[in-house]
Amino acid sequence: MIMKNNFLAKITELNSMEQQPTRFGYADALLELGTREKRVVVLDADLSKSTLTSRFAEKYPKRFFDIGIAEQNMLGMAGGLSLTGKIPFVTTYGVFLAGRAWDQIRTSICYADLNVKLAGAHGGLSVGPDGATHQALEEISIMRVLPNMKVIVPCDTRQARLATLAAAQMSGPVYIRLGREPIPVLTTQKTPFNVGKAQIMKPGRDVTIIACGLMVYLSLLAAQKLTKEGISCEVINLHTIKPIDRKALIASAKKTGAVITAEEHQLAGGMGSAVAEVLAQECPVPMEMVGVRDTFGESGQPWELMKKYHLMDGDIAKAVKRAVQRKK
What we know:
14 helices, Rossmann fold, 5-stranded mixed β-sheet, 2 domains, single chain, alpha/beta
């Protein structure tokens, strides 16, 4: 799907763009669903003010359940609620959701293909000062390996809202990754969103940059800079990691002959690995990956951490040049 909006025309400096955390879009969608779909219930693990599910609790107190710091119990309860016909949205920090309750997600929810929606907040290094214990850098790989699980990483707050609304209409478990810090809003009110369909944010001919979440913005910045150096980058927003859009990835790789992946996540098992699994089988091309390289994060300001761990637009541009060189 090629986006009609001229994204590059509006991308300049970070501080000049509208910014919101993706968790805002999630909270807005829950309020819409509260009115639209009476079966929706929300569960939280003593973090409702941070995850913003407190907004749903204020408006629909009888359909909100604060389970306390008991993530495993929360997932078991969500499974039970789904069997009564409810649509549970389970919300807490991604590192706790995917880590502490993985067995319940695997055996109680995915094995039975129950209709439970999971929202993992505070994904990535951009959590900032909360540090390594709260920075989810592994949960995409942990979630995507589970049969029946769908995995979505919205690129901005508007897409987070649409992803949440879409999850409510889908059958079976869905994991949505959300961020804490404000990030640039790339999409518009008219930008379409379809689960499992990658978005071409910028067409190009020399190399493909495939990104998710915050890294979509940084990839567009890198593409803009590289245009001035004569390198034409195609930028794809792979918001749905699973089910992955094999057709779009293969078509772009065949067109450009080189691929870069960019993610705010461990390289092992993440989005880049998912892309590599597809291309290794269908269209092997020179490929470089930008992401966290087998290390934990630390406490610091979000953009300082992104720079330290080599996740900025300049790092993406360097990876692009390496891939393009390998084509020769």
